[in-house]
Amino acid sequence: EDPEGLPGNKPPLYPLSIAAAFTVLGKTEFALRFVNVVVLAITALLLGSMMQFIYGNAGMALLGCALFLFNPATISYARSAMPEPLLVVGGMGGICCALKSCSGRSSIWSILCGVGLGCGFLSKMWLVFPFVVATSWIFLAAAKHGQRVWRRIAIVAGCSLAVGASHYVLVCCVTPADAG
């Protein structure tokens, strides 16, 4: 891949988060790695929240968080400068919010689910697909149990498309000649 490709052909969320860390913490290796450490900690909290929601057991949720945080792959990604943790936090956020959306009447969880999946797309583009499948499975399971979920699915789809397309809109506004 050409790292100096046209604007808009790379997902922008990871470079933007690194730029934010550099702005706040300075251009250091600590700032570079800080992003993934924070993102993986948030992912662990989302996992614990999901497990608490599903199993209703705080001990099980704490065990899930611990197993995730001390997993060799998690530790490896926390030390790296790669965008995959942002993909995972967006996808896990989408799944967590889909579960909460199906358990309540508030549309905010559907909106947050779409935002999470959209942010996952802005991190690694099409690698967010497994999270989209898992989220769809949750809504379809809720529909099978008699819930009306089509409005929620439309909200999720609209929000994720809006967030996912935002980088192209930004490129069109900032550098219209490169928008193609």
Structure description:
The longest helix has 27 residues, at 29-55. It contains eight helices and no strands. Helix content is 77%, strand content 0%. It starts with 12 loop residues before the first helix and ends in a 6-residue tail after the last helix. The protein has helices at residues 13-25, 29-55, 58-69, 72-79, 84-103, 108-124, 129-144, 150-174. The model has no long low-confidence stretch (mean pLDDT 88). It is mainly alpha-helical.
Keywords summarizing the entry:
single chain; 180 residues; mainly alpha; 8 helices; 77% helix; 0% strand
Distance between the termini: 19 Å
User: What share of residues is helical?
Assistant: over 70%
DSSP, total strands: 0
Mean pLDDT: 88
Largest sheet: none
From the spread of the alpha carbons, the general shape counts as: flat
User: What is the element string, with H for helices and E for strands?
Assistant: HHHHHHHH
What class, by secondary structure content? Answer: mainly alpha
Low-pLDDT runs of 5+ residues are none
Strand content: under 5%
Report the total helices: 8
